[in-house]
Amino acid sequence: MIASVGNSYLCCIMMTVITFHQSVLYRFLDKAAIISSTDAKSDLITNPWRLCTVTQVEELKILVRMFPVWATTIIFNAVYAQNSSMFLEQGMVLDKRVGSFNVPPASLSSFDVISVMIWVPLYDRVLIPIARKFTGREKGFSELQRIGIGLVLSIIAMVSAAFVELKRLEIATSEGLIHEKSAVPMSILWQIPQYFLVGAAEVFTNIGLLEFSYDQAPDAMRSLCTAFALVMVSAGSYLSSFILTLVSYVTTRGGDPGWIPDNMNEGHLDRFFWLIAGISFVNLLVYISCAMKYKYKNV
């Protein structure tokens, strides 16, 4: 990148001398591989900050193309972070009794794991053969299609959580529990669909992103790109914390209890879930745009 800026004054015609499987995107980066007359007469030709190989330039172009796809999965991982945050808060104010057992809210995250265990073989044994008949692809779906399906499922998961919370607040109102910090008579098992949907979304998006990062990365940077895909998971957690902090600050101004108060019966956790669903929907539109414009690398 620095070398391309440094050589920006050079004529573009010179680039035709050094092209080799050269992509037409981001042509301004090609100038990093141009040998100027000044560099040829000095020791600067050996300085990697002044001159790059065509391979290095093409590898950078691949990373630049991949970055928007990586970035659009941050919102997905913010949804995934609700498994260990707002889903638990919601479960704390639901009826945790199942028969003679008292179910801890955190234990419902096991349905996320169960969902993954169900969807992985279901995807390989059922969905791929069906998709292969329509798409003609050996893998059934492309990596970008797989990621997109997961993003849609994550939105449905947030919608499911919002409807559960709406019903919980409705019961709290009818039972006169609005101003009481107690659980409402609604089974915690109603949370199972949202956990199950998040697990299904994980199978599609996170695994699809790892496959995308490995297949599309430059040969010498596959491990780095795969690791960078995992960085999106932590970025999503940070984003979830930021959104939660911002929502708490904005909704508690003026002395209001806010959407997420200590007494959840007085709050509107459903609005938080709707907000995440709305952000995820906008993110999906951005992702579709990026996916349609994405150019797969030439193998």
From TrEMBL:
It is a multi-pass membrane protein. The chain crosses the membrane at residues 62-81, 101-123, 144-164, 192-212, 224-251, 271-290. GO terms for cellular component: membrane. It is found in: Membrane. InterPro entries: MFS_trans_sf, POT_fam. Keywords: Membrane, Transmembrane, Transmembrane helix. Pfam families: PTR2. GO terms for molecular function: transmembrane transporter activity. PANTHER family: OLIGOPEPTIDE TRANSPORTER-RELATED (PTHR11654). Belongs to the major facilitator superfamily. Proton-dependent oligopeptide transporter (POT/PTR) (TC 2.A.17) family. This is Peptide transporter PTR2. It comes from Aegilops tauschii subsp. strangulata (Goatgrass).
